[in-house]
Amino acid sequence: METKQNKKNPLKHPDQRVGVFIDVQNMYYSAKNLHNKKVNFGNIVKEAVAERKLIRAIAYVVRTESKDEQPFFEALYNLGIETREKDLQIFSTGMKKADWDVGLAVDAIRLAPSLDAIVIVSGDGDYLPLVEYLQSRGKQVEVAAFGGTTSSKLIEEVDDFIDLSLDKKKFLILPQRNVRVVREDIKRVGRN
């Protein structure tokens, strides 16, 4: 599926103040469903900032009871990405919910006065009213997401769209080979 590229070509200059707002769940499932890989959030933030002044980078994440995701949260922190954490909701029906759309939107609106450009890292069409609101306040709004799971209306509306699927090596984490397999490869090479 070919993604329609937004041709608005916004001005990006070194003095522009940028905020990056990352919908982790959206990105995780998009990368998993499209490419069966994990996301390289550090490279996404670097690309989104585009040598401008990063004011804030915030990742919206979900905590589970097992706390298995804690090393991931620490990795984000080490990359200079703040985390906003919310507990996974489990309903009596067994249904689970982990939604940060409203929290991300509130933070983007709250921080907008100190930003020139706002980058939403998500392809979720639910952010369309947020994009329209921020643009009506004179903000440059950009989206970075995987094109195959990004709302076409969102792509059309934003000032710039970065299709992360166009450079998979940069924005996805390639699976690491099993250490045992690597050791076997080394032994085999040594015998030849």
From TrEMBL:
<feature type="domain" description="NYN">
    <location>
        <begin position="17"/>
        <end position="164"/>
    </location>
</feature>
<dbReference type="InterPro" id="IPR047140">
    <property type="entry name" value="LabA"/>
</dbReference>
<dbReference type="Pfam" id="PF01936">
    <property type="entry name" value="NYN"/>
</dbReference>
<protein>
    <recommendedName>
        <fullName>NYN domain-containing protein</fullName>
    </recommendedName>
</protein>
<dbReference type="GO" id="GO:0004540">
    <property type="term" value="F:RNA nuclease activity"/>
</dbReference>
<dbReference type="InterPro" id="IPR021139">
    <property type="entry name" value="NYN"/>
</dbReference>
